[in-house]
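S1.2 Input.
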Amino acid sequence: MPYYWRLSAFYFFYFGLLGTLVPYWSLYLKDLGFSASAIGLLMAIPQLTKIGAPNLWGWLADRSGQRLRIIRAGNLLAAIAFMPVFWVDEFWSMAALLVTFSFFWNAVLAQFEVLTLQSLGDQAHRYSHVRLWGSVGFILAVLVLGEALDQLGTTLLPWVLCGLLWLLWLGTLTLPAGQSRDEKNPQGAVSVWTVLSKPAVSLFLVAAFLMQLSHGPYYTFYSIYLEDLGFSKFVVGTLWALGVLAEVALFVVMHRLMHRFSIPWILVGSLVLASLRWLMIGTVEDSLSLLALAQLLHAASFGSFHAASIAWVHRQFGPSLGGQGQALYSSLGFGAGWAAGAWLSGIFWQQWGAALFLVAALVAAAAAGLLVAGGVTRR
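S1.3 Output.
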């Protein structure tokens, strides 16, 4: 495949950074003395900025054709904006830092997804083989950091995040340009609103929102929940890594699944298995073997759902609206859905605890029912 290693390296560092931020940032905030409600709000901020930022950058990229420049600039400005983290320990200053950092960081991934598909050309169905290196980066991050944080404490975390941000920016300097100005949306082409008016597209975006909403208790309090059950940070990191290892295995065979099954049915199956995953986490308590089994379902709740979603958006929006389409998927799912899930989890965690995972199971099941009842699987 063209540009395989350069594209894969970007995913490796990007999701290595995510594997540092998502499992352990809540623990860092907890050690700074923030309450559960404050942690929920702070963890929601990067996702709140993802509601608007990807759409702004996606529109700009589609209009200007300068997608690679936007990716490079977003990474550089995110690295600069994160630098003050070493001196920040109050809620409002931490919130301001996360707003600024994530506004630029969220400019990157949706546009890079488009760049990857453009660079792969007629090999675009092999997207999952490139994306799996992001999962490898995530696994290495959570495993290495789990042990390191047990030994050195969470004060190590800002140093690691800063280092990864600068490595990620350096990686953007090696990326292919993809298509240039000729990729702009020509006059008279179909508008993004025309695509959104299709019921199947609207229902898909609602389902993407609900899927990420159901992840709220997991992404915000799963690590804290495991620590409260008595597990070490190394075990916490290992469980996170196990889930992403299952995701890697899924990505290896995803192109075959997409040849055998329709994309809508892959989305429905992923939602049903996500519901089962949250049900297990919420009921098995400190059974390490069953928690590990639940983590294997990450292959569906993230892996197959995300890979199928990228292909679905690419097919529905086409090349001229690809940046805006991927941005909408990112902002409504990983932005609005994740932010709402984090915020609601912060509000209810102290009262409900692990019961929130049962609510998450109902949300994922409802999303699957929505796609079936709305006739998306018949298209």
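S1.4 Remarks. The mean pLDDT is 86.
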